[in-house]
Amino acid sequence: MSRVSTVSVLLLLVLAGALLWAPTPAASQDSAAITFHKDVLPVLQKNCQSCHRPGQIGPFSMLTYKETRPWAKAIKQAVVTKAMPPWFADSQYGHFNNDRSLKESEIATIAAWVDRGAPEGDPALAPPPTEWPAGGWQIKPDVAFDLPAYPVPARGIVEWERIAFPAPFKEDTWVTSVEILPGVPAVVHHLCFGFQKHKETTPYNEYQWMEVPRDDNGNMKTVDGTTTGPLKGIVLSRTIGSTEVKRRTGSPTVFHEGTNEFCYLPGLPYEDYRPVDAGVFVPAGSDMIVSLHYTATGLEAVDRSRIGFTVAKAPPRKKFLPQDGAEGNNPPVARQQANATLAIPPYANNHPGPVAEISFLKEVELVWFRPHAHVRGKTVRYTLVHPDGREETLLYVPNYNFNWQLTYRTSVRIPKNAKMRVQFTYDNSTTNKYNPDPSKWVYYGGQSWEEMGTPNMGFLVDREADVNDVLIER
Amino acid sequence: MNRLCVVCMLVVFATVTSRGEQRDVRVTAADGFSLGGTFHSAEKGGPGILLLHQCNADRHIYDQLATMLNVAGYNVLTFDFRGFGGSRAGAFMDFGAARQSVTERMPGDVDAALKFLTAQSTVNGRALGVVGGSCGVNQAVHASRRHPEIRTIVLLSGGTDAEGEAHIKRSPNLPVFAAASEEDTDAAASIRKIVGLSTNSYSRVEVFKGAGHAASMFAKQPDLEADIVIWFRSNLPVAGYGLPPAIR
After folding, report:
1. Mind listing the pLDDT tens digit for each residue in A319-339?
2. Within-domain flag for B248
3. Which helix (H) or strand (E) segment is A308 a member of?
4. In what order do the strands lie in the sheet with B123-133?
5. Does residue B58 belong to the interface with chain A, where contact is any CB pair within 8 Å?
6. What ranges in chain B are assigned the alpha helix state H?
7. In angstroms, how far apart are the furthest CA atoms of chain B?
8. How far A171 CA sits from the closest chain B CA (Å)?
C-alpha cells in the first residue's frame, strides 16, 4: 500500500470513528446539559451553603462536588418536597423578602441534575467560591462578646436565668445586625438580650433566677390562680464560676424592663437591619441584660456562646422596635399574657390556643414576624383587623416547627387603630413525633415540655419617634 | 457510575469533611472476650449509634457510613462480632466453625458494645440508634427491646423472630427504616413484614432491584447511606429537641 493510501485509510478510519462516536442530538443535549459546577453550585451557594458547610448545622457540606455528590438523591428529595430550604409560610398569604424557598426553576435544575446521574461538569465553569466570614459567623461582626462558660447539667430542670454585663460599646451606638453563636446548640433553648440604662441595683456577673414551684412531671404549679412564673418570690443567684447558690425573698435585681431586642432560638438565623437602614440605639453606659434558657439533654455540656454585632458609622434612618414575649409592662409594649389561660388536653391533635390581640395606637411599619411556640406548636395565623373591620391574613404557618423558628420579613403599613389577632394551634397527639408525653395536660410555661404561643413582631419607626404607647397586647 | 468511581468518590468525601475523632477500641464482653471496634466521637457531643454488621463481612463494611454519620453529628461505634475481623481469638477464630456459639453470644456482645458506647464522654446515653445488617437485624430489634434509650433502628436485609416482631408491634414510639433488594427474596419479605408490623407512622421500607444484600447494597445504591443519615437526623435529632426532657 502506498503512503498516500495508508494516510487515506487512516483518515477514513478516523472519519468513521468520528461518525460512530458522534453524539446523537439527545446525547449532545445531555453533554451540554446540567452539571454541578455550571448549574447546581450557584443554587447551592445562594440557598444552601450558609448551613451546609463545615461547622454549621447542616449534616453535610455542599461546598464542593465531592462533598455534595453522595447526597444527590437526598438533596433532590428535600427540594422537590420543599422540606429544604426550611420555610414554613403558606404562600397564599403575605409577601416575605427573606423567603428561602427555591424557585421552581432551581428545583427543576437540581432534580434534572440528579436524574442525569449528578454529573460534575467542567470546574472552570464554576462560580467563584463564596467567602464566608471566619469563626462560623454569617455576619462580619465589628464587635464580638463572649459569654462566660456555662455548665449545663445532664439532667434536671434549668430555669430561665438572667445576667447583666456592661454593654460592649464605649459610646452611643446604633447596632445594625446581631448574630448569636450558641456554643452547644443542643442545650440552648433560647438566648435573648436587650439593652437598658444601668441601675445601681443591677449587679454584674451574677446569674439570677426565680424558684419555680413544679410538680413531679416538671410542670409549673399554679401561682395566684395563674400558671405564669412568679416575678416575686424566692430569688436564687450565683456568681460566674461558682456553684454556691444564694436564696432570698423578693424580686430579681437583674431584670430587663423592656423587650428582648435580640434572640437566638433553634433554627433562627441572624438579625440584620442594614437592608432597611435601621438599627437599635444603645446609649453609652447601658447594660446588656441576657436571658438564658438552657435545657438538660442527658449529656453534660459546657456552653460558650458568642454574640457578634455590626454597628452603624452614621445613625440609620429608622429605629427598630421589637414586640416579643416581654416580661414587663413598660413602654413601648404593654403586654398581658394571653397564654396564661392555655390548657391543651391529652391527645388533642388540633387544639386552638387563646387569641392574642394587639392594638396599634399609632401607624407603624411591620417588618417581621417570629412566632414562638414549643414542641407541640402546630400552626399559627396572624390576622390584621383593619379599622373598618376588614380582616386580612398576613402570615399563616401551617406546619410550625420548633427546630426552625424563622423570622418572616415583610413590609406592611399597619394603620392606626388596627388590631392584630394571633392564634396558635397545638398538637398533643401521638402523631407529633416531638411530643414528649401525649397523655398529659399541657399548660403555659417556659420549659419546652410546657407550651407558649408568643406572637413576636418587629416594627420600624422613624429614628426620632416616640416609641411610647405604640401598641398594646391583651 | 461504576463501582470503582463511587468508592473513590466516597473515600475522598471521607477525607475532605471528616471532623470527629476516630480510634480503634477494644470492647470487653461479659465473659471477658475482647471485641475489636472503631469509635467515632462527635465533636460537640450528641446521640450514639451502634452499627451491627452482617455475617459475611466485618465492621469495616460500615466505614463510610460511620464517617458520614459522624460528620452529621453522631457518635458511632462499629465492632466485630466474634469470629470476624478484630474479634478472632480462642474458640472464635472463625465464624463458620463456631456459628451457634457466636450467635448465642451476640445479644450479650451487643449489650457490651452499648455499654461501651454510652460510657464515652461525648455520648448522650438516652439518645441511641442502631443499624443492623442481615444477621444483625434480629440483634438490632432485640437491642431496642432491651434498651428503651434506642429511639430508632435501621434494618438492612434481614428478619427477626416472633419475640422481635411482637416488640415492633407494641412499640409505637420506635420508627423503623428498613431496606433490602427485591431479588434477595427472603430478606425483602422479612423487612417488609417488620415495617408492616410497626405501629409508628413514620416507619418506612425501601426495596431496590439488583442491589445485593445488607450493607453490600451501598456499592450499588450509593444514595442509601445518605438516606440512612437523613433518617437519623429526622428521628434521632442531634439538637436534642426531639427527645423527652431529661428531668430525672
Report:
1. 998 876 444 443 334 344 456
2. no
3. strand A306-311
4. B21-28, B34-41, B75-79, B46-52, B123-133, B150-156, B176-181, B204-208
5. no
6. 3-17, 63-71, 99-119, 135-146, 162-169, 185-197, 217-220, 223-235
7. 52
8. 37
Asked if A400 and A424 count as a contact pair (C-beta separation under 8 A), the reply is: yes
Quick one: closest CA in A to B19, which residue?
A: A54
Question: What is the distance in angstroms between the Cα of B102 and the nearest Cα belonging to chain A?
Answer: 33
Residues 6 or more apart whose CB falls under 8 angstroms from that of B219 comprise B3, B6, B7, B212
> Chain B residues with CB inside 8 Å of A185's CB?
44, 239
pLDDT in tens, A271-285: 999 999 999 999 999
Taking the Cβ of residue A266 and every Cβ of chain B, the question of whether any pair is shorter than 8 Å is answered with yes
Rounded Cα–Cα distance for residues A449 and A265 (Å): 16
DSSP string, A378-412: EEEEEEEE-TTS-EEEEEEESS--TT----EEEEE
* Confidence band, pLDDT 50/70/90 cuts, at residue B189: very high
Residue B51: CATH number of its domain: 3.40.50.1820
Residue A29, pLDDT score? 41
Whether residues B230 and A297 touch (CB distance < 8 A) is answered with no
Q: Is any Cβ of chain A less than 8 angstroms from the Cβ of B198?
A: no
* Closest partner CB to A449 (pick from B10, B227, B245): B245
**Short-list B43, B247, B23, B54, CA closest to B116:** B23
- Among the partner-chain residues A64, A73, A218, the one whose CB lies closest to the CB of B245 is A218
Average pLDDT over residues B92-96: 92
Question: Is A299 close to B223, i.e. CB distance below 8 A?
Answer: no
Is B210 inside a domain boundary? yes
Contact A155 B17 (CB under 8 A): no
Cβ(B39)–Cβ(B32) under 8 Å? no
- Residue B18 CA to residue A14 CA, distance in Å, equals 47
Contact A461, A348 (CB under 8 A): no
With b for 16 or more beta-carbon neighbours within 10 A and e for fewer, the A366-397 pattern comes to: bbbbbbbbbbbbbbbbbbbbeeeeeeeebbbb
Q: What is the span of the domain harbouring residue B226?
A: 3-235
Report how many domains make up chain B: 1
- pLDDT tens profile A364-384: 899 999 999 999 999 999 999
pLDDT band at A54 (very low <50, low <70, confident <90, very high): confident
Q: Which residue of A has its CA nearest to B151?
A: A433
ipTM attached to this prediction: 0.81
Report in angstroms the alpha-carbon separations of A283 from A174, A180, A277, A280, A319. 9, 21, 19, 10, 13
**So what's the pLDDT on residue B15?**
31
Closest residue in B to A295 (Cα) is B245
Q: Do B13 and A266 count as a contact with CB atoms less than 8 A apart?
A: no
The verdict on residue B242 lying in a domain is no
Q: Is residue B45 part of a domain?
A: yes
Residue with cell 423527652: B244
Residue A185: per-residue pLDDT = 87
